[in-house]
Amino acid sequence: MSESSNKNITIHEELWKIPHLSSNDLKLELIRSPVKLKGYVDNLLRMSRPKTLSLVSSSSSELLKFVKEKIMSREENPKCCTYYLKKCWLHYVKDVTMVVIEAAEIGETSQNLQQTTFRFNWQS
Length: 124
Prior knowledge:
Layout: E1 8-12, E2 26-29, H1 34-48, E3 52-58, H2 62-72, E4 93-102, E5 113-122
Parallel strand pairs: 1-2, 1-3
Antiparallel strand pairs: 3-5, 4-5
Helix pairs in contact: 1-2
């Protein structure tokens, strides 16, 4: 089992619209299909167990819908890894809170973007 990290991960669906990027955060420009990106998000959460995961996207984003459903609708005792010794990241999430910041508050010029941040509390 890997330990949780104090990393903050930010995923921008449209990276070219962002005026500046901080080198302290991991940024990922989405250039692949949503199906492949779902796997990338799973892998990021499995490998790094971040303190936060933020997604800057439109409110109608397919990836945002997937991430919200996967994280916020998880079962207390997931059955996804019943037959495996090594469990996926879902088994180690103690609690998650979600905060949505509208485009005007994050300095975006496009009014259809928002930042959705998931704050994780991992089991030790």
